[in-house]
Amino acid sequence: MSLFKARDWWSTLLGEKEEFDQGCLCVADVDNSGSGQDKIIVGSYMGYLRIFSPHAVKPGEEVQPEDLLLEVQLQEPILQLEVGKFVSGTEGLHLAVLHPRKLCVYAVTGTLGNVEHGNQYQIKLMYEHNLQRTACNMTYGPFGGVKGRDMICIQSMDGMLMLFEQESYAFGRFLPGFLLPGPLTYCSRTDSFITVSSCQQVESYKYQVLAFATDADERQETEQQKLSSGKRLVVDWVLNIGEQALDICVVSFNQAVSSVFVLGERNFFCLKDNGQIRFMKKLDYSPSCFIPYCSVKEGTINTLIGNHSKMLNVYQDVTLKWATQLPHIPVSVKVANLQDLKGVIVTLSDSGHLQCSYLGTDPSLFQAPRVDSREINYEELDAEMKELQKIIKEATETDILPKSEIQRDVIVTAEVSPDLDAESQAIDSEVKAEAVPSVTVKITIQSRVTAQKPNLAVCVQAPLAVTCDQFIFGDLEPDSSETVVLSVFLKGNCSPSELEGNCLVSYITPTELNPDGIPKVAQCNFRLPLRLICFPAQPSKAASHKLTIDTNKPPVSFLTIFPDFVDPSENDQVNSLGFQFLTGSKTTLLASKTSQRYRIQSDQLEDLWLITKELTLRLEEHFKKQKCKDFACTFSGSIPLQEYFELIDRHFELRLNAEKFQELLSERAVQFRAIERRLLTRFKDKTPAPLQHLDTLLEGTFREVIALADAAEENQANMFQAFTKLKSATHLLIMLISLWQKLSTDQVAILEATFLPLAEDTQEL
């Protein structure tokens, strides 16, 4: 409830279901009474013309009937009202009424009444102009600098300015580049018309230029004639404001300077009459109407701006001086002198709420009614409080987090066979080794509740593959289980970066509240054996890349931690192991006899990763079985950054090659289609023409496309291998950094999230 309300001096509601807009309100001494007292003239789209002479009304009293001087219904909607010296031979004020297809000028006269009914007012039609085009709005003024009379300019809906010298039609001109009509006004100091075009720019046209430009009736002439005639309508100045304008107004309180005010949809502009911006104000509301009304301080202008929040703001240039609340959204605002009261604010809403108000404060006299006192029953209140606390406790105890693994509705487990398959299940493997082994994984799904549409997906990192990765089951009953068996093998011709897999079961559990069921997911991980990708071989003494892992415990025999790679018949003191990868490379693991160190060496940096990881995992498991809690591995050597950067460069080079192949393929495909179109045109032609070697060109282009596609495929395979190697090397680097700096599990997870964000290599990511 605003304290700063517009104080209601006089108000009334016009008609029933009538509509009003910006041009429907005018304030002037239209009956030439000479008293200096303004009358309020209102026209509606229903064709009603009303003239009021308001008198002060006490709060609670009705508007007096004699305040309405005249009410007459004209035949057509009233678009705009203006008062000026529109009749020749007299300098008296007359009323101009703009209809869609007619302009009428009336004289308003009053006759002194002899009885108590008061004075009588009537309007007399002085002249009218029938319009050839539908009107939008009008402006008036002493065009061409004439003295003692006003002329009228009407803007049509299709962009024609029609000028009338009082009783006679002068000429019509089309605005250049016109699309939709905008607000129009006349500036007497520069003798020019100012409008805002659909290009969202303020445009000024001199009256003299309009008068001497090509007549609108001759508009059909050719462009060449128009250029040669020298009579084209040229704009005087243009200013881009970047938004549509609601209204435009020219004021000149000081004769030396006249200002052009433009109200936009989000900004309020003040321009000099040569088109330069004096100032602008960004509005934080949606304005509906405005009027610059006076100059209180030298060099400044006060403006009223109404908005769609039923507020009327008073600005001095760009400074907000006052804000007042109105009972309606104003579509037009004027300032009038009424009954010895100067500066009354007259506002009109689109539904016909006409109000005369002044600024002030309206203190709220509201007092809260006294509450009837009554006896309070504390026992009832206590019982109600306990009941409410019980409800709150029950509501807050509901756990929205997923239940622990033991209480889960569906549990999925994966069991990896300790031995490799006697008969390998590998299919379509690209590995060039003599035999590609496979290992069996047994997956069991146990359901404690009814699980609908269970779907099992098994994922392993390429180049590993599974014999079947998708399983769909029927609905599972409570306390039932399903088991599937599948095999994992090495499919691609490179070593994987991880020896881990993932099982994921998606299912739906129906509930009482939701019969369609709630989708849920259960998952588990499994670890694959190292024997799946490599087999025992003779240790190699020479190698390009070497790593040394320090421990705080005496070295453990390889027979204990790598029983699957050491022949049991060999000596217990085996201190070297060879790992031959299926892809061809070899890695050697050495244990120091004197110190607590292990060395891993290979010709390829990426091959060190899986052996190093397997070594640390098996050592941790060994000491965990012996209940030794303080076992730790460390790394104190240099991080192999140079070799790592070489892998990055190689991968990046292959990515660039992939882009290049894609561009070349696209070019050749476009060329191929163009040749095909040419050939098709030749073949369709009724009179056969020579092919001009187009068939040879087609065959050559086809060969190029096939060769490029083969090269792109080969590059893609190389890029996948480079990506896998880079991923393995990144894993190794993160592991070495964590061992070197003794990082916690959380810190290692942050490093992995930073350096290993991608699960697969694509051009898009």
Explain this structure.
With 765 residues, this protein is α+β, with helices and mostly antiparallel strands. The protein has four domains: 6-215 and 233-359, Methylamine Dehydrogenase, Chain H (7 Propeller), CATH 2.130.10.10; 410-530, Immunoglobulins (Immunoglobulin-like); 533-635, TATA-Binding Protein; 641-756. 21% of the residues lie in helices and 36% in strands. The chain has eight helices and 42 strands. The strands form ten sheets. Strands 37-39-40-41-38-42 form a six-stranded antiparallel β-sheet, covered by helices on one side. Strands 1-28-27-26 form a four-stranded antiparallel β-sheet, with no helix packed on it. The longest helix has 48 residues, at 694-741.
Strand content: 35-45%
- What top-tier CATH class of the largest domain fits best? Mainly Beta
- Kindly report the spatial arrangement of strands forming the biggest sheet: 37-39-40-41-38-42
Radius of gyration computed on alpha carbons: 46 Å
Oligomer designation? single chain
Low-confidence stretches: 219-230
**CATH topology label of the largest domain:** Methylamine Dehydrogenase, Chain H
Shape category: elongated
Structural class by sheet pairing and helices: alpha+beta
